[in-house]
Amino acid sequence: MYSYYNDNTFLYIDGEYRKANAATTDLFGQSLHYGYAVFEGIRAYKTANGEVKIFKAKEHFDRLKRSCELIHIPYKFDNEELTAACYKILEMNNMEEAYIRPLVFCPPNMTLKAASESRILICAWEWGAYLGEKLLRVMTSSYERPNPKAFKIESKSAGLYVNSILASQEAKEKGYDEALLLDMNGYVAEGPGANIFFEKDGKIFTPPAGNILPGITRATVIELCHELNIPLEEKLFTIPELKEAEAAFFCGTAAELIGLDSLDGHSFSKPWAQSLGKVLQQAYKARVLDKSFQREAQLA
């Protein structure tokens, strides 16, 4: 089993830096019993000039605050202080590249009332690309994403990820690398922990906000499409439409950007190395490392 900490690992909790193996929590917390918590996944990179930089820290902590607001968890924290705490944790743990996990959780409360208090944890560990480096064999999941009328889908809430666990586990038990979930209307939504894009006829497509978590990596890919003059459209689409795509990819902070080999055993027609997804994958890597990127050079 992967070890996320050791005897020398530090974390941040409620304004203090503590050894991870000495930190405790209350077993009667609302978050433990009901999944009533929100979190972020953030990455730090050693950039081209040797500086350690957290990618889009402001956007992540803004979303953390917004997630709490959406599900009525008090947010008393200062995001600039939390960003500074992330850098301090990296320094204390001698990390140059890491995955950072802020978690806002709730104290003891066995009722189903909204929390009146909250606490915060920030930890970090070294973690490669979550879905690996190889193209993924993906299956359409039998599980759907929750109806937005039943939950605040745009909140990165801990309890929502039980749905992701079920979908991902189903895919792995059937011999696939990952799942793809539909929304309640039968349109493609997202992966268990990543957004999806596909390419057809020189254009990139992705589901619109509404039934998905509008990811920060997703927003970065959209920015890159605009900068590289790659046509992009946010639209609803079905599995049969997706199978007619030339190429497709997942993206997310943990996964970064990773191409799909096939969907339900149907292979995509364009070699990944020749796809717009590959261009965007390299552009994304250049962006997080603060390196220059020119599409023309990539295509040469």
In short:
It contains eight helices and 16 strands. It has 300 residues and is of the alpha+beta class. A hairpin with a 2-residue loop joins β11 and β12 (203-206).
Q: Please state the CA-atom Rg, rounded to the nearest Å.
A: 20 Å
| Element string (H = helix, E = strand) | EEHEEEHHEEEHEEEEHEHEEEHH
Low-confidence stretches: none
Overall 3D shape: globular
Q: Total domains, how many?
A: 2
Percent of residues in beta strands?
25-35%
Described by strand count, sense and barrel closure, the largest sheet is: 9 strands, mixed
| Helix/strand class | alpha+beta
Mean pLDDT: 96
The CATH homologous superfamily of the largest domain is termed: D-amino Acid Aminotransferase, subunit A, domain 2
Assigned CATH architecture of the largest domain: Alpha-Beta Barrel
Per CATH, what is the topology of the largest domain?
D-amino Acid Aminotransferase, Chain A, domain 2
Please bin the fraction of helical residues: 25-40%
What is the CATH class designation of the largest domain? Alpha Beta
Distance between the amino and carboxyl termini: 43 Å
The total count of strands amounts to 16
Helix tally equals: 8
Protein name: Branched-chain-amino-acid aminotransferase
Keywords: Amino-acid biosynthesis, Aminotransferase, Branched-chain amino acid biosynthesis, Pyridoxal phosphate, Transferase
Organism: Chitinophaga niastensis
Function: Acts on leucine, isoleucine and valine.
Description:
The termini are far apart. 27% of the residues lie in helices and 27% in strands. The longest helix has 14 residues, at 57-70. A hairpin with a 5-residue loop joins strand 4 (42-46) and strand 5. It has 8 helices and 16 strands. The protein has 2 domains: 10-126, D-amino Acid Aminotransferase, Chain A, domain 1 (2-Layer Sandwich), CATH 3.30.470.10; 136-298, D-amino Acid Aminotransferase, Chain A, domain 2. The protein has 300 residues and is of the alpha+beta class. The chain has helices at 30-34, 57-70, 79-92, 161-173, 216-227, 239-243, 276-288, 295-299, and strands at residues 10-13, 16-19, 37-39, 42-46, 52-54, 98-105, 119-125, 136-144, 178-182, 188-190, 195-200, 203-206, 232-234, 247-252, 256-263, 266-267. The mean pLDDT is 96. Strands 8, 9, 10, 11, 12, 13, 14, 15 and 16 form a 9-stranded mixed β-sheet that branches. Strands 1, 2, 3, 4, 5, 6 and 7 form a 7-stranded antiparallel β-sheet that branches.
